[in-house]
Each structure stands twice: as C-alpha cells, then as structure tokens.
Amino acid sequence: MLFNAVKWLLVRPQDYRREKPEEVIYGLDERPPAQALAVVVFQHCLLALMFMVYAILAAEARGFDNRETISYVSGCLLVLGLGTLLQGWRSRFTPGVPLINIPSPVPIATYAAIITLYGPGAAIGAVIFANLLLALMVPLLPRLRAYFPPEVIGVVVFMLGLELVSSGVPRSVGLIGGEQFSSSAALVALATLGGILVASVWGNMRIRILAVLIGTVAGGTLAIVLGLFDPRMIDRMSELPLLAMPLSDISIPLPEFVPMAILVYLLVELFGVMDQMAVGLTIDKLNDRKWRRADMPLVSRSVIANCLQNVLLGAGGMISGGSSGANIGLAHASGIMSRHVAIATGCVLMVLAFLPAVATLVVLVPEPVVGGILVYTAAFLIVAGMELILSRMINMKRTFTVGLSIVVGSSLLIVPRITEQAPEWSQTIVGSALMVGSLCAVALNMLFRIGIKKTASLELSSGHPAAEISDFLEHQGKVWGARREVVLRAGMAIGEAMEILDDADVIQGPVTLTVRFDEVDVVCALSYEGRKLTLGEGEQVDLEALLDDEDDSALEAGMMQVSTMMIRRLADRVRSFERSGRANLVLQFEH
C-alpha cells in the first residue's frame, strides 16, 4: 500500500500543451547537453549565492556571530537547494519548471519583530504554521485576487524597497552599530553600485544578468585596497574543515505557536505566495509561443512546492524563501528553459551547503558591499512597485488606497518614535513599515470595494454610439481598476461590432451593452432584438483589389470582412447566439 501511495505521488500529471518560442533553445522537458547544462547551472548558482545576503540579514535578526551565521547560511543553502530541486521535479505536487529559490526579503522585518517580542521559537512556529495553512489554501488563492490587486501588491513592493533603504544606507556609509560615517565605506558602496549600474545599463543581456556579481567583485576589490577587508579572515578560512553539517553550530529551539505572530506572518507570506504565483505565470508564459491563458495547475504546484520548502526552512529556524525573478531572466537570456537546470542547480546548492568555505565567502562580503547591493535592490523594488500601481486605471478610491498606505507605512521609518512608544501587543505589526503599509492597503481596498458591482449595463443610443461606449468603458475601467490597454481594445472591438451590426441591418430595437469584470476576463455582450450575426473567420483582405473593383457591394462586403478581422484580433474569444428572443454578440478579453 505504501508503494502504491509513493507511486501515485510520483506520477507525472498530464502536461499542458505548449509550443516552444523561437528564442528558447531547450524547452521544459528537453535535456541540454552536459557542457551547456554545466555552464548555465554554474551561472544560476553564482546568482543564487549573491542573494544569500538576505539570509545574512535574517541571521543578524537572530543575533548570531560569524560562526553561527556561516552555519545558518549553509542551512539555507541546503533547504533552498532542495526547494529548487522540487521546482524542477514534475509530480502531482511539484511543477517541473526551471525556478531557482533564494531567501525572500519580504518577511525579514516581520521575522525580526517576532523574534524580538516572542523569541525565535515563536518565529519558527509562525513560519511552519503559516506555510502549512497556505499549502492547504492553494485551491482558493485565485479567488483572493480581487483582494490583492496590482495596486495593493505594488504598495507592498514599494514599501519593501523603502525598508531596504533603511537597512542598506547605514551599511553603505559605515553607520552599522553606531559607528561614525566612513568615506572609505561610502566609496566601496559606490563602486558596488557603479559596477551593477554599468553592467545593467550598458551590458548585453548576459552581462546584465550577472550585474550583481560584477558589482560585488568591484566593491570587494576596492574594499581590499582600502583596507576594509581583514586579510586574516582568509587565513581563518584555511582552518575550516573541508566538510561540515549545516546548522551544526546553531541551537534550534522548539516551535512555539503564538497566535499574534502566526497571524502577522501569515499575511506577509500571503504576499510571498502572490509573488510566487506571478513567477510561476511568468515561466509558464515564457515557455509557450501561443500562450493565451495561465496553466493554473502548474502555478498551484509551484506554490505548494515553495510552501513545503518553507516548512522545512521554518523547522530549521530559518527565514522563508521564494523563487528568484533574476534567475528567470538568466534562463530567458541563455535560452535554456529546461527543468533539468533546476534539478541540477538544486543538487549543486545542496552540495555547496556542506562546504563551509562557500558560506564563509558569502558571510565575509564587506558591509559596504552588502549596503550597495541593498540600495540597488531597493531602487529596483521602488520602481517595480510604481509600475504595478500604475498598471491599472486609477480613480479617487485607488488614489487614496495607494497614497494613504505609503504615507502610513513610511511614517514609521521617518518617525521611529511611533514604533518605540506603541503598545507592546502591537509591536509585531508596527515594528515593520512593510507590514503597516500592507495592512493599510488591504484594509482600504476591502473598504472601497463595498458597493462595486462586477457587472454594468448601458443602453446605447441610436446614431453614433462610439463616444458613449468609450466613456462608459473608461468609467468602468477606473471603478474596477482594469488594465488600460484591455479597456482600449474592448472599446475598439465594440465600436467595430456596432458598425457591422448596423451595416448588416440585423438590429430591430435598442442595443444593450453589458460589461462584466472578474480580474481574469473583461466580457462585453451586445444584446438586441433581431437576427443573430454570424461572423466569419476574418481572413486577410486584398484592399487594393477591392478599391479597384467598381462593384460597391463587393467593397461593402470586403470592409465588413476587415472589421471582422479586427474584432477577432482585438478580442480573445468571440461568439454569437440567440436566447429568450434576443440576439447576443459576446466579446471576451483576457485581463
């Protein structure tokens, strides 16, 4: 019976049919040659090691010394390597995609606040319980999209960038631990940032992907020249054993399940899950030339695999992780999208976890270099948050949701006395500007959703309703927070549809436009009394031949065919039918 259960778990689910894009050399299930695989795995491992700086920040929150931090980073490498392998392995609960996992920067401040207030045991319990619950909630996550629209996620990303500023700038100028301003530290941070910027702005695709590594080398070299790196640390590395068990130098307390800590961490992890879903959707889209709709089973399995990894990270006293967007960029730049890359990279990371020298090199990166990396990451996140916020049409409600949330969250960074004088029970929340800003955004979004209907109707006036249609869709798009380009496509398609209906003389009364929005699709239906309109396939029309033809009826038929072609290209799905004595033309637009 156990054998059958294991066999059932390992059975590969039916794969979603994909057509490999031209720029992809090796698709999801294709195995690259050993040499190409080795090169790309080496690059993925280097990039993942650069992002272990987030594990160092989490170790600082635990109050670890250098020896304990090295052991902690090794433990993170081991479990994140396993998580990466799970992302590459295809089974009923794992996706089989080339996603590389790294420590997540999102929960760092909340994780530190929980440790300060309730101790490391409560942090361990919060990570374990939150991720177990989220793994069980995976089937419900698509229904929560309305409560976490892009403007809310944008506020979260923006506030995360601001929090990294407060951590990165002191490191960049030598103010960690109450020290004085150091011009040498500032120069090292500028060299790090300069290396990243030069590689990102003027480098080709492959150079841009390795920008963080290039900046680290530039900053580290200058730190050695300026004497900010103690050479004796290199001598101590020779004293390290060749192999060591990860987490062997750390005492892991038993988990404690504190309700307040779990609740706060659950919300933070929910944002992390939304990010994981976005990463899964990105890798799905990049692997299908004719991508039209998300492969939600694959995305769900990616979230489940990540939650299982985070449960193991929590059990080891470590912070949560997630899949790296930068590594997706590397996979896209190399053209190697094979899931075997994730399997191989995961195995290499797990092997590196047993080599103390690797974790030591990560830990010994000078503070100003870490500061430069954090400042770069903060700048990137702030702009990414702005893009998310502005990706939807904005009305007064969304303006207040975004503006007030950012003001409330950033006030904790500008006036830290608010946090110091807040009641003890609220310290878990107010200890993190990210948490306060995120909670404010979620609460305001839920408040302003009251009274908003998913469906709106308009009876079109006779004559030329194009302006009426455009104004109606513009208004509803702002109410719903729809993407502007989708609303514009819908307006053009409905305008063309009205022209065809008028020319075909099938309307015998007023036309009603009904629009429905559900965060996944915008569905526009034209309902009228009369005959059903049958649209052709919209084949290409030879306009020059039509213009030379003196037959007016042929020209009219040709122009109708042009309008049909435009409608079918603008809308993702088109259907017409009759119901209850009324004809309906339905245009569906994926959102």
Could you give a short description of this structure?
With 591 residues, the protein is α+β, with helices and mostly antiparallel strands.
- The strand order across the widest sheet is 3-4-5-7-6
For the biggest sheet, the summary is: 5 strands, antiparallel
Please indicate the percent range of residues in DSSP E strands (runs of 2 or more). Answer: 5-15%
User: What's the shape?
Assistant: globular
Mean pLDDT: 84
Radius of gyration: 28 Å
Distance between the termini: 45 Å
**Structure classification:** alpha+beta
Q: Extract low-pLDDT stretches.
A: none
Summed up, the helix count is: 25
In total, the number of strands is 7
Percent range of helical residues = 55-70%
What does this structure look like?
The protein is α+β, with helices and mostly antiparallel strands and 591 residues long. The chain contains 25 helices and seven strands. Helices cover 62% and strands 7% of the residues. The strands form two sheets. A five-stranded antiparallel beta sheet has the order 3-4-5-7-6. A two-stranded antiparallel sheet has the order 1-2. Strand 4 and strand 5 form a beta hairpin.
